[in-house]
Design goal:
With about 150 residues, this protein is mainly alpha-helical. The protein has one domain. Helix content is about 80%, strand content about 0%. The longest helix has about 45 residues, at about 90-135. The mean pLDDT is about 85.
């Protein structure tokens, strides 16, 4: 009877962990969407805040994974039905959506980086041109008082 009670208690803990993990995965997806929007708007300060929030959630998700692994050991091999792929379908879907959102953000941010580099090159070129102009003694039209 004690072993059966332990399985029930451990199973309940596992279900709670899976629910908390899914909730955090959904938060992570929401933040990924916010990050993409911020990238579209070029709002880099928001992106930094979002990345910080995502990092905190990632640490919690790592802790969940460790706890889930420990519960797997506690339940033993005869309770494998708790760990079928179907049980994790929702979590897998959310993770897949989050990865796709991250790919979109990466493309946007890469494009913004490339645009910024091009603008910096143009600025550097303009800066050199202005400095050349200002340092030239003769501008091609010299004023001659004798004319």
């Amino acid at each position: 009877m004690f072993a059966n009670e332990n399985v029930v208690k451990t199973s309940d803990s596992l279900i709670e962990l899976l629910a908390a993990q899914c909730a955090d995965l959904e938060k992570l997806l929401g933040l990924a969407r916010e990050e993409t929007l911020a990238a579209q708007q070029g709002n880099f300060l928001s992106i930094l805040d979002i990345v910080s929030d995502r990092e905190k959630i990632s640490h919690r998700l790592e802790a969940f994974q460790q706890q889930i692994a420990e519960l797997r050991v506690t339940l033993g091999a005869n309770e494998e039905n708790f760990f079928r792929r179907e049980a994790f379908t929702h979590a897998i879907e959310i993770a897949t959506l989050t990865l796709e959102q991250d790919r979109q953000s990466k493309l946007l941010l890469t494009g913004l980086r490339d645009e910024s580099l091009a603008e910096l090159k143009n600025l550097e070129k303009s800066h050199r041109g202005v400095n050349k102009y200002l340092s030239a003694e003769s501008k091609g039209l010299a004023y001659n008082r004798n004319v």
